[in-house]
Amino acid sequence: MDKTWKSETIFYLVSLVPECGRSCREVRRRIALGKEAFNKKRDLMQKSPSLHLRKRMVKVFVWNVVLYGSETWTLRKEDIRRLEAFEMWIWRRMMKVSWIEHKTNEEVLQMVDTEREMMDTLRSRQKRWLGHILRHDSLLRITLQGRIVGKRGRGRPRTMFLDWLLKTEEDNISYVELKMLAQDRSQWCQ
Q1: Does 98 lie in the same domain as 62?
Q2: Percent of the chain whose predicted confidence (pLDDT) is above 70
Q3: Which residues of 66-101 are buried (b: 16+ CB within 10 A; e: fewer)?
Q4: Full-model pTM
């Protein structure tokens, strides 16, 4: 474990907030909690009468545990890979697919009759939260907009929350346009 995690990690509103502001440790912790939640309800998830009902139970009992507080995460490629792997872990366990069977992820998704949805759900939650923040004058909005004054450290700058969210937008929208769109709540929700 590197020094950044040992120094000043606080536990705030059921989330770990390290001094450096990264989300990777919280993502790992949330995935572990999601696996624990799935294992507690394993019998129910594997033996329910319909596939549709089982998928809904996974999203209610497991995904909500994993995605709690995800609105503020700035994800790296490694974190996205972990979340996608967790999603496939859930579907494989639900359908009782053993690793010995050598089924591809696409085959498992066809068995479940779904597509990968966890990252889309996470991004939609983040966009909804961002719209809420941008509509109101608050310290959080000032913090999101603010830039740190001073000399930047060596190396590539870290990806900030807004940079990450704007990068994932399909139509490459600027921050000013995003702020104007957020003012109309009905348009933002669409």
Answers
A1: yes
A2: 79
A3: bbebbbbbbbbeebeebbeebbbebbbbbeebeeee
A4: 0.78
